[in-house]
């Protein structure tokens, strides 16, 4: 991950397993004490990794999975959710410290996900309203 020659590619699963998948694995012998996806990854011999997701909203904002309608249609909608926007990420940043050390020593892969200029507005406005807003802003 330092843009240098490597001996092999990392072995990891970037799309986490569904809860039903883990339940089935438990029935097939996955130890019950393994609850964290990273513990389960280690059990399967995958390389240690950690993703830190820095959201622009508190987890309390409910967005439709595919963000068809969005959560904001009026100024009142925006004012209602405004206190939940841009949360404090200090605890996530603190939690990164041990993982940053592991990555610096070449023992783990660590990455961050930041919601950008498309994902965040799509959550708020929905896909169609966002596309219209991009179009109108061009003209």
* Share of helix, binned: 40-55%
Secondary structure tally, helices: 6
How are the strands of the largest sheet arranged?
1-2
User: What Rg, in angstroms, do the CA atoms define?
Assistant: 20 Å
Label the overall shape: extended
Share of β-strand residues:
5-15%
Distance between the termini: 42 Å
**What characterizes the major β-sheet?**
2 strands, parallel
Overall pLDDT level:
83
Structural class category:
mainly alpha
Give, in order, the helices and strands.
HHEHHEHH
Count of beta strands:
2
Low-pLDDT ranges: none
Gist?
The protein has 139 residues and is mainly alpha-helical.
Structure description:
The structure is a single chain. With 139 residues, the protein is mostly helical. It is 41% helix and 9% strand. The chain contains six helices and two strands, in the order ααβααβαα. Strands 1-2 form a two-stranded parallel ribbon. The protein is extended. The mean pLDDT is 83.
